[in-house]
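STRUCTURE:
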């Protein structure tokens, strides 16, 4: 099956790599006939067809599914959410490829769980999209606190910061949301600093997800979790929010 070379360009650029960086990531070497970058350019111009082994390397280096390289056209850019809060002084880029890969991974997990739960409890989590955005913040905080059964007295009695987060996480998960501590793609080589994201949420009536970056300060985890839980009360299904 012929590969659309535009997809190769799209995948490399979406990974945040230049031609030279992409050639290096793919393990291409300079030869007497051409440089590593020229080899990659030949693939991206369509003058040379990539082998399956090259596509497998691209899948790994660009953090994309192998199947995506067999599409007829590059996929449309998806909605990555809306940013509402940023850490003071953070040097943020418009796009972080590792965060993009993490979001795709989270979406995959959420989809699997949603498919399973959708057959068991079609009513789902009733508080998602249960209020409007013009509700006063204090009232919204009161409602979500009552909904998850959070006791500030109990929260303040816990012995330390990890225990406080565990108490809060237990309450949020008992309400129907899933809370993950996740800040990389499975190894420290892909650690995402808190300056890139502190938390990420997917509003969904069946399987709402909250992801807290475990590379952020532990004292911030207990702030990020209820902030995201509060937020998707007013969201429609599928709405995403990254918190900075």
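SEQUENCE:
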């Amino acid at each position: 099956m012929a590969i659309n070379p535009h997809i190769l360009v799209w995948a490399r650029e979406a990974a945040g790599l230049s031609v030279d960086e992409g050639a290096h990531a793919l393990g291409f070497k300079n030869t007497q006939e051409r440089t590593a970058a020229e080899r990659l350019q030949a693939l991206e111009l369509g003058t040379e067809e990539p082998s399956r082994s090259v596509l497998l390397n691209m899948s790994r280096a660009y953090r994309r599914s192998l199947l995506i390289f067999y599409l007829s056209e590059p996929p449309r850019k998806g909605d990555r959410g809306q940013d509402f809060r940023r850490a003071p002084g953070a040097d943020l880029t418009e796009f972080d490829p590792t965060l993009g890969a993490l979001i795709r991974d989270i979406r995959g997990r959420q989809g699997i769980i949603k498919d399973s739960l959708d057959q068991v409890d079609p009513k789902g989590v009733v508080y998602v999209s249960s209020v409007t955005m013009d509700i006063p913040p204090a009232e919204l905080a009161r409602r979500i606190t009552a909904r998850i059964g959070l006791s500030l007295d109990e929260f303040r009695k816990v012995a330390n910061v990890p225990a406080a987060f565990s108490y809060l996480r237990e309450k949020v998960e008992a309400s129907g949301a899933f809370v993950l501590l996740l800040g990389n793609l499975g190894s420290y080589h892909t650690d995402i600093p808190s300056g890139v994201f502190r938390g990420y949420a997917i509003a969904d009536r069946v399987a709402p997800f909250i992801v807290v970056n475990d590379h952020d300060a532990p004292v911030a985890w207990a702030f990020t979790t209820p902030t995201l839980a509060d937020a998707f009360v007013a969201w429609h299904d599928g709405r995403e929010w990254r918190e900075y």
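REMARK: The longest helix spans residues 97-120.
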